[in-house]
# Entry
Amino acid sequence: MNAAYINRYGGNEVIEIGGLPKPSIGPNDLLVQVKAASVNPIDFKIRDGQTRLMLPYKFPLILGNDSAGVVAEAGAMVTRFKTGDAIFARLEKDRIGAFAEYAVVSEAVAAMKPRNLSFVEAASIPLVGLTSWQALLDVAGLKSSQKVLIHAGSGGVGAFAIQLAKHLGATVATTVSEHNTALAQRLGADVIIDYHKAKFDDVVRDYDAVLDTLGGETQARSFAVLKKGGILVTIYGVPTAKVGREWGLNSFVRAAMWFMNRKQFVMAQRHGVRYEYLFMQPNGEQLGAIGALLESGKIVPVIDRVFPLTQARDALAYSESGRAVGKIIIEP
# Structure
């Protein structure tokens, strides 16, 4: 089968496009003929080797975390899916490989593709949908009538999170460029801040939650917009020692993770708020609930560009540029 893979860590020059054996499946797995896969920042971070401490992969490594396709074969213990079913999934972290003609998907992380979505649209959803769901519901516990600031509202996570937060009944503020204010309006944002013209921390105050997708100075300034007892959930930068414990990492690595997050915890304590890092977990049950929202039209996909598999390097380069509005898709 054709695949986009690496044999060592590095920049886009290490990505190879070529033939690899079709993967074999276990009793609880699905062999999926991939119709579309989406590109996420985690893909170039894996390519670079930034995640090697938490995710020690073996080579050759097929890249790609999100997929939508058709079940070509079902394992002997599979009960929820059958050959021919159209599914979508965020692949398990230790078994990625969506940038290929076939991928192995555990039954536990898959869900039926929403009937009203194309494979391209469905492939855009799993990682950003689950990240938004787990950040806003599981970690922040966002409720109706609360207020949330979502950074980078035109990005993959931001565009989904705005819609989910509005579905939950929250008041949503977001930061975008002037070019993307109309998109933020269509997605339902209540307060739209053009970050070229205004500082978000001059505009919003006493918010219940912040979803940080950018890190750096933006993250540091975000603590001040929260009310006492609020929460900042980030998906950017170095995971916390708490995440390291959940992953079973050794004490030395956890200590290093704590040290690299010490400034954030100090700022959180100073402002009387919580700071949490989210390392999203694949979850077929949650993805099924997200699929229902998509079928009802309460959330819509936002697609930027579609690349063929042969242009996987270009797709990752475009993702790294930070210019994408919504999701980038690869079609095998």
